[in-house]
Amino acid sequence: MSGPFVPFRQFVLKVHSRCDLACDHCYVYEHADQSWRGRPRVMSPETVSWSALRIAEHVKEHGLERVHVVLHGGEPLLVGAKRLGEIAAELRHHLDGVCDLDLRIHTNGVRLDERFCDVFAEHRVKVGISLDGDRAANDRHRRYADGRSSYDQVVRAVGLLRQRPELYAGLLCTIDVANDPIAVYRGLAELEPPRVDFLLPHATWDSPPPRPSATAYADWLIAIFDLWYEEGRKIDVRIFESIIRTSRGEPSLTESLGLQPSDLVVIETDGAYEQADSLKTAFAGAPETGLHVLSDTLDDVARHTGIVARQLGLDGLCDTCRACPVVESCGGGLYAHRYRTGSGYANPSVFTADLLKLITHVRGRTTMPTHALPYSTIDALAAGYGEEADVARLAESQRSVRRALLAAVNAAGRSVPEAWDVLVGLDNDHPEAVEAVLAHPYVRVWAAECLRDGGDAEYLRNIAAAAAVRAGADVSLDIAIIDGSAHLPSLGTLDALPGRAARLRIEGGSFAVEGRERGAWRPTRRITAGDLSLALEDADPFRDRHQWPAAPRLGERDAAAWQEMVERAWRMIETDHARYAPGLRAGLTTLTPLAPGPAGRDVSSTARHAFGAVAAALPADPATLALLVIHEFQHVKLGAVLDILDLYDETDRRLYYAPWRDDPRPLEGLLQGTYAHVAVTDFWRVRRLDAPDQGETHFARWRAHTAEAIETLAACGAMTQVGDLFVAGMRRSVTPWLSEPVPPDAEEAAARSARDHQAKWIVRAEN
């Protein structure tokens, strides 16, 4: 097993191996691994020094700016205040000035007093305390061996920390669904913690958790989430914040969620390196690495197969998890919770149903995108392709985006009340008619412009009128006239109309302009090719939002030429580039003619908000049109992905070299171009068999350029976790193509072209 090297940034030092409580849910003493029995009670000064040295060595080796060290147990306060001060001082001695050290201690709190607080203040140690809620909840498990309650002592300890807030890190609560969730939350919240960490009880498929219902743990947490959210998120609840963050493509705040690689290691009281403590719940010896601070570096530990297995992200998950629509938040759950005898950790979490329900609920309440893409879809799209179902998911997500934009236009006071009321009424009675109009690509373009710079709000009348015609409703409505025409999106255009508005009377699917001649009605043309049907959009007033100018209205001869060219290009796509055909069927709805390019150049384009539309000037041959359509539809797909997932850090303002452009590109531009050129490379990989003279050189050129751009993206440091997966998917497609043989003259011509382009780019950049 291998994976990328991930340095450790979190270190747990077991400074004492025994505890003064006898909590019956403790994974250290009550679960499968009982190695604590053979370990020293207290970590020796020598082991502390070696641990500090190893951490400092690791920090310097990898240039780490910040690390987290947690003093843990057992119960670390059993070491005593004086010794804890010495341990903290030793760590500060080796790490202060080398990196930013976040030093913490996690305790049950029963022994905490002013002496300890003074020591922690001196050495800048933050204190986290375990408390399972109100008195009834806490005393269900957290008792002394003789059965006495620990609640009063713990609350007293929290009181000390509230008086010294610079020391107060927060509270940790292990969930028991037998407890009242609201009482637990209230009991914790009244102690004003900076953070609350709700932990699922450690369990495996061999030893499942108590479960009164199929999603008992989700239901318990959802009750707290709803209250927490409605009250304005007054305290930081780590599991909820992590779900929100990971749903946006940001890193999780906890090891138990998200896809980021684990960067935590444990050092036991005897100096043995171990994996995460939670593995003690799986089987005896599960956390062991066989490595020790006296003889092994932390780099040695990072290469241990058990550590690497927890750093593989999606690649380390079972097929069920990879296909899950919330995997980017769930991350498969805590590694230990996946264990089952016989299959090891290659299983979903024993809490998988709970995690799915909880994450879906949180996303819904926080009005975040609910169209999460399963891993299989991300993987297929990242490779450059996508089956019909994959692109259909993108198309469905666009439905929500369009509706959200229209709602935002209305909320911003930029819509027309009369038209809005008609549209809302039709949506209630004839939702399919409204959806057919809103799905027209340039409706979203209009809505985006309306929000951005005011746009032409009156055009909402035309949208409502088009929906009324489709619904067969009886409506009288003013419509906007733009440049002498009134366009009804998805239907057609009324030409030769004077003025800025006209009253349209709609009855049973027919319509007439009140008080004047109707004008010439030109229905939107459609092109059919096999099972593909496209609108040939040459009249929409918002179609002219592409990189190149839109063509004027088409005559019959031009429309016939488009029909013939699309038929021939589609046959070529279905025959020679069949992997792109299912996605095109599912997502391509509109072809917008462009004016011819300069000097006969083939030009094509997409508009960011026009999902489903590809624009192009009519080329000379069907192969070129096939290439243009495949190329541009990559942008359509990726734009829709970016509406759902954060693939990169939007605060990155750097400009990057793109081998196909003369100008430096922002990160999104490079990502878009790279993704499109995966398809361009693939097209020429196939096309060179029929056109070897030009095809071999094109293939050699574009595969090298695309591979170079992929590595630029991979190394930029600004991709999110899901973005890294997307880049890796592009690399998986392109890498095998680099080994396909091409004639030496084609290889040399491609290399010469690449050198010339980059040299000229450097000169322009320097000037």
Automatic annotation (TrEMBL):
It comes from the Bacteria. Gene3D superfamilies: Aldolase class I. Residues 5-238 form the Radical SAM core domain. InterPro entries: AKG_HExxH, Aldolase_TIM, rSAM, rSAM_sf, rSAM_SPASM_FxsB, Sulphatase_maturase_rSAM. Keywords: Iron, Iron-sulfur, Metal-binding, S-adenosyl-L-methionine. NCBIfam families: mod_HExxH, SAM_SPASM_FxsB. This is FxsB family cyclophane-forming radical SAM/SPASM peptide maturase. It comes from Microtetraspora glauca. The lineage of its organism: Bacteria, Bacillati, Actinomycetota, Actinomycetes, Streptosporangiales.
